[in-house]
Write a structure and sequence with these properties.
With about 575 residues, the chain is of the alpha/beta class. The chain is built from 20 helices and 27 strands. It has 4 domains: about 110 residues, Beta-Lactamase, CATH 3.30.450.90; about 220 residues, Rossmann fold (3-Layer(aba) Sandwich), CATH 3.40.50; about 80 residues, Rossmann fold, CATH 3.40.50.2300; about 60 residues, R3H-like domain (Ribosomal Protein S8, Chain: A, domain 1, 2-Layer Sandwich), CATH 3.30.1370.50. Helix 6 runs parallel beside helix 7, helix 17 packs parallel to helix 20 and helix 19 packs parallel to helix 20. The protein starts with a strand and ends with a strand.
Length: about 575
């Protein structure tokens, strides 16, 4: 990497005694910013520490002297030094007088986007996220240069605070052949964004700090016109944008949707859920955790959908070693902030912590959310749903290799079946190799798996379960798909996207060639046509017994199927969801 910072020009605006101290400082080249506050000691900040430059407090004369050596302060209380990337931000008192300065060092770092260069070249819109000072603007500047100089694209930078291309009318060489549009007032940034598209025919728009609803709408307008958008926004992670009503449109927007009874049952969720409103403005998101460690979401739409359904996204983690080599791993990110990186061939099933709540008597019901309580807490139904989706309360412990049950019990899980075929249960447990033991004693059970119709008509079972604090998990019917789904739910195991050969064995009766061929035919139809293309498919005529197996397999995918035609040509028709 090559770094250009013109540091001496920033030091020249400081009081002479402070300038001399910094010029001789051992960490001069890594200086981040200098803070001057009236009546306080001047402070120099470095990447990992801060130190005072003098024991004498800063005077108003010193602040006024610095102000005279920099450019004009705009509506955002920022100024710059011509032909440099440095930024001077002002703190004013109630009368508008400047009583504090933050003098930040601006650096052009060539080669800083090596980690995501392949994504930049795809032409898709990219959103950079990260805390202040992590290098978002530096990366933005380098992306603009690479797109303009090396990929020969027409790039226009919307430079609201003159921070990307420096102060003055002539832009800094760090942006290459990119063109820069200045913004007279910060609140007009969205208008300049639209003006750039309408007047200057860009292929790429670069924008720093999207922070208002109007700017988010302007960004969507630009993206809908086929222009590649590269920008930054306030927030460390995508979850921050989802919870931010002002900026949520950048990731597609969030809306509450009421599902039909059948769809709610199919999803296994409540009837009112949160869903993404529209395609995201930015197709790729990069969370800049550290300067040499970025988390990449290659599909923002998939990440947002996963988060809203309480699932874990699996983004890429890109790091750079001392030799400049980019390493890419996968990350299982727990919603509560803990994470675990996976190599290309490593896979981990997260296990819940074995808290043993039932055994220790710590399992207590949550207090019901009454309308009065919800009103007092100031939370709307929409906010409640959003928090339920994002605030994952399960604790994943990757250091502990023990698996545990839904209430913290160590596996194998002891299940008491009620109204469910024991032979089918044993078949599912054996074929899928699930850590479940069936028990005939409800006192030794960790959970009850029961038919919904039986539980409704058996008050005594509900009373016994409540007295023993044993959760009841209900399934609609005693079929292989329902039993498989119920056991997976008990063990907190996600359903696989693709049915493997082991699961096909569950639906076989005699394992004859005709049965195997029929199930394979149904599986290929569902996975290659019905689900990806949304088209119905008719299968070959089969015997009633084989058709029953095909119906069960289709139910396993949560799809509908009907038999039609006359024997011996009666056959299955599978419908998309």
């Amino acid at each position: 990497m090559t770094i250009t910072d013109d540091l001496q020009k920033l030091l020249d605006i400081l009081p002479q005694d402070l300038r001399q101290i910094l010029e001789k400082h051992s960490q001069r080249d890594s200086l981040v910013e200098v803070v001057l506050d009236l009546g306080r000691r001047p402070e120099a900040r470095f990447p990992h520490q801060a130190e005072y430059l003098s024991d004498k407090p800063v005077t108003q004369e010193q602040i006024d002297d610095c102000i005279q050596r920099v450019g004009t302060f705009g509506g955002d209380n920022r100024a710059g030094i011509e032909q440099t990337l440095h930024r001077i931000s002002a703190i004013r008192n109630r009368n508008g007088k400047i009583i504090g300065l933050t003098c930040r060092v601006g650096r052009a770092v060539f080669g800083t986007i090596g980690m995501i260069r392949d994504l930049v070249e795809t032409g898709r819109s990219i959103l950079m996220l990260g805390r202040p000072g992590v290098g978002k603007t530096t990366a933005l500047r380098e992306i603009a240069r690479v797109l303009a100089d090396e990929l020969n694209k027409r790039v226009v930078i919307i430079d609201t605070s003159n921070e990307i291309a420096g102060d003055g009318d002539v832009p800094h060489p760090a942006i290459g052949k990119s063109r820069r549009m200045q913004v007279a007032h910060p609140e007009l940034q969205h208008q300049v964004m639209i003006e750039a598209v309408e007047n200057h025919m860009p292929e790429v728009i670069v924008i720093d700090e999207i922070g208002t609803e109007l700017e988010a709408l302007a960004a969507r307008t630009i993206a809908e016109r086929g222009v590649q958008l590269v920008g930054t926004a306030h927030g460390n992670q995508i979850e921050n944008l989802i919870k931010n009503p002002t900026l949520s449109d950048l990731v597609g927007g969030i809306q509450a949707v009421t599902l039909g009874d059948e769809e709610a049952r199919r999803r296994g969720s409540q009837k009112t859920v949160l869903e993404r409103k529209a395609p995201p403005t930015f197709e790729i998101a990069v969370e800049m955790m550290e300067r040499q460690r970025w988390v990449v979401h290659e599909s923002v739409a998939d990440t947002v959908d996963s988060l809203l359904r309480g699932r874990q996204p699996t983004p890429q983690v890109r790091t750079v070693d001392e030799n400049g080599k980019v390493n890419i791993t996968r990350q299982l990110t727990a919603i509560n902030g803990r994470s675990h990186s996976l190599g290309a061939e490593e896979s981990v099933v997260p296990a819940r912590q074995a808290n043993g709540w039932r055994a220790s008597g710590q399992m207590v019901p949550l207090p019901p959310v009454t309308p009065e309580r919800e009103k007092l807490s100031g939370r709307s139904e929409f906010d409640r749903l959003l928090n339920e989706s994002l605030d994952y309360t399960d604790s994943f412990d990757f250091a502990d290799t023990r698996h545990s049950g839904p209430n913290g019990e160590d596996l194998p899980l002891h299940v008491y079946p009620y109204g469910v075929s024991r032979s089918q249960l044993e078949q599912v447990i054996q074929v899928l190799n699930l850590p479940v033991v069936l028990t005939k004693d409800i006192d030794s059970a960790d959970a009850i798996l029961a038919l919904r119709s039986h539980v409704k008509n058996h008050a005594k079972l509900r009373q016994m379960a409540r007295a023993r604090q044993v959760p009841i998990h209900m399934i609609k019917s005693s079929t292989i798909p329902q039993i498989t789904r119920g056991l997976r739910r008990l063990l907190n195991i996600d359903e696989p996207e693709i049915t493997d050969d082991r699961e096909l064995q569950l639906f076989l009766h005699s394992a004859s060639d005709d049965e195997i061929d029929a199930l394979e035919e149904a599986r290929l139809a569902v996975e290659n046509i019905v689900i990806p293309k949304g088209q119905p498919v008719e299968l070959l005529p089969r015997s009633p017994q084989v058709r029953k197996m095909q119906h069960e397999l289709v139910e396993h995918y949560r799809l509908k199927s009907h038999s039609f035609g006359e024997e011996p040509n009666r056959r299955l028709r599978i419908y998309p969801a």
